[in-house]
Amino acid sequence: ITLFNEFEMPDRPFPGNASKQTLEELKYLATQEGDEESIKEHDDVAKVFKKKHKELGLEFNKDEAKELLKQSAKHLMELKYKYNRPRPYQGAKFYNMDVTNFNMDSMNTPSYPSGHATQGCLMGKICSDKYPEYRKEFTELGKDIGDSRIIAKAHYPSDQRYGIKLAETLFDNLK
What we know:
With 175 residues, the protein is mainly alpha-helical.
């Protein structure tokens, strides 16, 4: 089953590694206080949404969610390796800054765009579409997943912004 129609991925290169914007984003990340428990809690997108569905007494189709995340990951990986942006801790070395992150298995790919921001926002949109009375909760949950990657210093804010844009494009192109 193919969930997404053929579509053109939005092309939006990241700010250059030596740009003023990247430096400002690194300075911002350096100020973030990490909450390791919250970061780990938001690492598994499907699990986060499954838990919220259970709290709300709603049905959650785990297989459907896994397939959606798997297919969206194809588009994400294509973009991540097209842009090949270093992770913030790698970029910080250029400026002799220490942007220590929480090391997680999900950080073994290039930084741009943020997969968690994309998939969290996409799941939030899909769940909101299915249960519109809980739109606020699901939208907030998707945002929290993306925010957790900023707090973990795993992504630049621009990675997150492009991830959200990508989620909107993917959602618009669901069959």
